[in-house]
Amino acid sequence: MRVKHVFSALLLPLLLSCLWTAPAAAGWGEALKAAGDAGAKAAGMSVTPSQIEAAFRELLSMGADSAVESLSRDGGFSKLAATSLSLPDSYQKVAETVAPDLLSNLNSAAEAAVPAVGQLFQKTIKTMEFANPSGLLSGKSDAVTNYFEKSTRPSLADGAAPLIRAALEKTGAGNAVNAVKQLSSLTGTAFDPVDYLTNKTLDSMFLYMAQTEQDVRSGDIATASELLQKVF
């Protein structure tokens, strides 16, 4: 980890905190960043505010790509226990009779939806703002990913749900969804496949992104760019 050399002087964290926590109206945010860059260079700092923000975006983008590559494969969700899909306990035996292919259909739909969800993530990464970058840089091994999730999850869920619904229909899982409704009446347990897959897909994306961040911070990714190596 290269955080130590970034924070060898106390000025940069203070400078970044003051600049990025200040209210930024349209256009004013860029002016603050420019002033921060100039101040950091004048103080002899090794990285500027703009470089740190660019590194955060690159890090998140890399993590999202890794998530899409892993989860969109056949069996991508079932590969890890943390991402594996499941049905409510009360559905298990009934599903074997009413909808024996339900879980398989849900997996297929989730895998098919991931690339489009990944594009949604990339678009969000490009436009989001970062508060207290110095704190994120010196924070826990998944600080940037955690900040991204907390800041964007509601909007990502709103955007991902239609993609999940479309994937369910495209993969022929419509019959499975109808079966779910039957299961709900038979078991007395409500289960919304779109809501479930949306949240499970987001959870899985963030999981892979956090792992990527941890690998970058620890220097375990040989393909990390010069910028990422410089900032982290």
Count of DSSP H/I helices? 11
What is the element string, with H for helices and E for strands?
HHHHHHHHHHH
Describe the sheet with the most strands.
none
The N- and C-terminal alpha carbons lie at a distance of 6 Å
Strand fraction:
under 5%
What is this entry, summarized?
It is built from eleven helices and no strands.
How do the strands and helices of this protein lay out in sequence?
Elements lengths: L2 H4 L4 H10 L7 H15 L6 H23 L20 H7 L3 H26 L5 H5 L5 H28 L3 H14 L5 H26 L7 H6 L1
Helix pairs in contact: 2-3, 4-6, 4-10, 6-8, 6-10, 8-10
Structural description of this entry:
This protein is mostly helical and 232 residues long. Helices cover 71% and strands 0% of the residues. It has helices at residues 3-6, 11-20, 28-42, 49-71, 92-98, 102-127, 133-137, 143-170, 174-187, 193-218, 226-231. α4 (49-71) crosses α10, α6 (102-127) packs across α10 (193-218) and α8 (143-170) packs antiparallel against α10. It starts with a helix and ends with a helix. Mean pLDDT is 84; it is low at 1-12 and 19-29.
